[in-house]
C-alpha cells in the first residue's frame, strides 16, 4: 500500500523541477505553461532509516522500501474550472489521488516568467484553491442531476449521496471548504467515492530559492504564506527545487554530507514525503530477515489480519496469529532471533491493532 500525491499549481512554479528531483526523471521543465501535457507519474521509495538499520542487523540480501506515487499535473490558470488553459482535462486527473500538494513559487528568476507578472505566493495559493472549489461545485451540480433522479425512484444510496452533495454544494457556493467532520462512517465512505478535490488531505510545498530556504518562516513572504495556509488547515513544507534537483544527481553519502553542512538531517523532498504520510495517517511495519527486509504501509488503526493481507491475500484469508517484536527491541538485541531469545517476542491475535515500526512474522494456513 502506497499513496498517491498530485502536484497542483500555476505554470512555472517548479512542479516539474521538484517532480524530477523526486523521481530523478526527465519531465520537461520548460519555461512555458502546460509543458506537462500529460501528468507525469513517478514511483519513489519512502526514505526510512529504520529499514536500513534492520537490513544491517539481519544482513539482508535484499531491501524493499515502501513506495509512493507522485503525479505532476499540468499548470492550472485562472478560469481552469471553466475550461481555460487546459482546464478540466487536468482537474479530472486529480480526482483519483490520495493527497494534494499545492506547489507555490517563492523563488526569483528573471529567466522564468511568472504568469501573474510578480511573486505573491498567498495570491497564487488562493487562486488555485478557488479554482478547485469552482471545479468541485461544477462536479457536484452534474452529480446531483443524476442522483436526484435515482433518489426519486427510492434508491437509498442515491438519497444519501444527494443529501451530502447538496450540503457540500451549499458550502462551496458560500466560499467554504466542505466540512466532513460531522459525517457518519457510512457517509464518509460515500464521500470517499465521490472524488472531490477540496476535501482531500492537502499541504503546501513552497518552492524557494536558497536564501529564503535558510530563513524560511522568518522573512516576510514565507511568514505570510505560513499564516494563510494555517487558516486553511494546511502545513507548509519549504523545498528548494533547483537545489534538490542537483542533490538528486549525487551519491547518498555526498547528499548526507551536504545536508550535515547545511545543519539539516533530511532533505526538503524527504519532508514532502513524510508530510504526505502524516496527512494520510499512515504507519509502517516491517518484515525482516536474511533474505529480505521490507517496509509495508498501512493506515493507523489497521488490525493484524488486514496488515498481513498487505503482504499476501492468503495471509489475511488464513490468518492464525502474528508474532511481533518492536523495532527498538530488534535494535537493542541485534536482530529477531536474539530478541526472541530474550523474551521480547509477543504473540498477537486477530484483534491486535498494528503499531508503527512493528517487526512481524505472520502465521497462517490456507
Summarize the helices and strands and which ones pair or pack.
Elements: E1 4-8, H1 15-23, E2 40-45, H2 49-58, E3 63-64, E4 67-72, H3 87-91, E5 99-106, H4 121-152, H5 156-173, H6 185-192, E6 202-208, H7 210-214, H8 220-231, E7 236-239, H9 241-247, H10 252-261, H11 268-279, E8 282-288, E9 293-299, H12 304-311, H13 313-317, E10 319-326, H14 327-332, H15 336-341, E11 346-348, E12 358-364
Parallel strand pairs: 1-4, 1-5, 3-9, 5-6, 6-7
Antiparallel strand pairs: 2-4, 8-9, 10-11, 10-12
Helix pairs in contact: 1-9, 4-5
Please describe what this structure looks like:
This protein has 366 residues and is an alpha/beta fold. The protein folds into 2 domains: 4-279, 3-Layer(aba) Sandwich (Rossmann fold); 301-364, Roll (Ubiquitin-like (UB roll)). 42% of the residues lie in helices and 19% in strands. It contains 15 helices and 12 strands. The protein has helices at residues 15-23, 49-58, 87-91, 121-152, 156-173, 185-192, 210-214, 220-231, 241-247, 252-261, 268-279, 304-311, 313-317, 327-332, 336-341, and strands spanning 4-8, 40-45, 63-64, 67-72, 99-106, 202-208, 236-239, 282-288, 293-299, 319-326, 346-348, 358-364. The strands form 3 sheets. A 6-stranded mixed beta sheet has the order 2-4-1-5-6-7, with helices on both faces. Strands 3-9-8 form a 3-stranded mixed beta sheet, with helices on both faces. The chain has a 3-stranded antiparallel beta sheet with strand order 11-10-12. β8 (282-288) and β9 form a beta hairpin. α1 (15-23) runs parallel beside α9 (241-247) and α4 runs antiparallel to α5 (156-173). It starts with a strand and ends with a strand. Mean pLDDT is 86; it is low at 25-37.
Amino acid at each position: 500500500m502506497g499513496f498517491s500525491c498530485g502536484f497542483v499549481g500555476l505554470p512555472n512554479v517548479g512542479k516539474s523541477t521538484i517532480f524530477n528531483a523526486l523521481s530523478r526523471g526527465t519531465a520537461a521543465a520548460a519555461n512555458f505553461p502546460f509543458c506537462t501535457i500529460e501528468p507525469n507519474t513517478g514511483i519513489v521509495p519512502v526514505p526510512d532509516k529504520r529499514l536500513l538499520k534492520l537490513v544491517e542487523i539481519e544482513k539482508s540480501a535484499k531491501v524493499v522500501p515502501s513506495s509512493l506515487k507522485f503525479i505532476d499535473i499540468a499548470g492550472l490558470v485562472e478560469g481552469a474550472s471553466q475550461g481555460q488553459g487546459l482546464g478540466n482535462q487536468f482537474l479530472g486527473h486529480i480526482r483519483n489521488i490520495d493527497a494534494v500538494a499545492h506547489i507555490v513559487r517563492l523563488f526569483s528568476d528573471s529567466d522564468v516568467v511568472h504568469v501573474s507578472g510578480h511573486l505573491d505566493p498567498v495570491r497564487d495559493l488562493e487562486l488555485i484553491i478557488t479554482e478547485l472549489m469552482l471545479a468541485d461545485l461544477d462536479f457536484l451540480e452534474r452529480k446531483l442531476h443524476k442522483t436526484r433522479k435515482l433518489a426519486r425512484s427510492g434508491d437509498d444510496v442515491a438519497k444519501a449521496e444527494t443529501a451530502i452533495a447538496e450540503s457540500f454544494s451549499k458550502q462551496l457556493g458560500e466560499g467554504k471548504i466542505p466540512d466532513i467532520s460531522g459525517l457518519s462512517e457510512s457517509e464518509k465512505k460515500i464521500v470517499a467515492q465521490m472524488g472531490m478535490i477540496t476535501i482531500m488531505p492537502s499541504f503546501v510545498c513552497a518552492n524557494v530559492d536558497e536564501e529564503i530556504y535558510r530563513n524560511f518562516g522568518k522573512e516576510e513572504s514565507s511568514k505570510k504564506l505560513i499564516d494563510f495556509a494555517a487558516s486553511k488547515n494546511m502545513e507548509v513544507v519549504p523545498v528548494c527545487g533547483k537545489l534538490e534537483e542537483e542533490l538528486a544527481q549525487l551519491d547518498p553519502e555526498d547528499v548526507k554530507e551536504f545536508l550535515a553542512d547545511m545543519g539539516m538531517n533530511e532533505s526538503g523532498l524527504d519532508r514532502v514525503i513524510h508530510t504526505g504520510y502524516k496527512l494520510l495517517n499512515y504507519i509502517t511495519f516491517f518484515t525482516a530477515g536474511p533474505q529480505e527486509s521490507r517496509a509495508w504501509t498501512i493506515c493507523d488503526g489497521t488490525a493484524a489480519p488486514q496488515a498481513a493481507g498487505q503482504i499476501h491475500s492468503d495471509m489475511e484469508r488464513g490468518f492464525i496469529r502474528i508474532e511481533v517484536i518492536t523495532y527498538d527491541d530488534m535494535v537493542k538485541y541485534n536482530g529477531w532471533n536474539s530478541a526472541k531469545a530474550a523474551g521480547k517476542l509477543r504473540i498477537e491475535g486477530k484483534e491486535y491493532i498494528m503499531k508503527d515500526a512493528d517487526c512481524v512474522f505472520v502465521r497462517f494456513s490456507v
